[in-house]
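Help: why these numbers?

___
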Amino acid sequence: MTSDCSLVIRTPAELIAMVPFVMGYHPSDSLAIVGLRGDRLEFAVCHDLPPPRATDATAQELAAGVADAVARQRVRGAVVVGYGPLKRVTPAALRCAEALRRREVTVLDVLRVAGGHWWSYLCGSADCCPAEGRPCLPGDSVIAAEATFRGQVALPSRAELTAQVAAVGGAERAEMVRATERARRRFGGLLTGDQPARHYERLVRQQGQDAVRAAERCYRSGGRLGPDEIAWLGVLLTDRAVEDFALDRVVPREEWRIRLWTDVLRRVEPPYVAPVACLLGYTAWCAGRGALARVAVDRALAVEPAHQLAGLLHEVLGFGLPPHLVLRGRQRPGRGRRRR
């Protein structure tokens, strides 16, 4: 993922302290590849370590895919950081480093992090890198404080990141079930009468645009939509033109938009999840929050595997494409603008 507020990194310990804030969570049993431009951390991609019984061909394929994603970011320097036990991290980290070198990406260091310490595979000096490792920076370090001040968050695990986009339950879910039934009846009322199909298309589009604008005003000012407003918006977003309208209005680095689409995603009923999850995924991706974008798109595909935009976003994230390569001319990934 691409960081939306790069920080100056001076030491391996500072880089290790910063990775969770770029990812959005603290990695474990994972391999992170950090891209640097000069002394600035620009992005990081992370994947699980290969399973213990993975074949060499599978592990090589995984390393090649990650190296390709890093190379597409057009950086010349990268650091590989493995999180986990020595026997699992070592082959994965060294294999990934070699794959990067083959793609003419300079590997600045290969590190392992475990138990609050770090080691370098490229340093042979006992004075610099003792056998017991060097201590990681504390959680309240200057680098962590600066990242937090800039609005970056590091959750304890990826599972907690996934939980942030999970459906609400209990009484709130029961209320959304009732609100959704009211929204369905309201939507059906739009389609009554004996008018041409284009009349109903325009009517749904106008209702959808009004609902999107109202939601934006609410969250921009710090508010929160009620159950009926959430349900109505979710129903309207199943119309492709309304979904496109909302996508066109996404602007990078507007945190309130992430709050808006996260709230809507958690509260809509399953049939209305996919468009909203794509809106959150696209918004998070534009903001440089690739990990959040990934879990949002995963949720869309879980409920609707054939959803077109979810599939496109999945490919974009999988290829590691940064927003600036795709958003030239304000064009959405893989979908042309509609004439209004």
Q: What stands out?
A: Residues 36 and 77 are 5 Å apart (CA to CA). The first helix runs from residue 12 to 23.
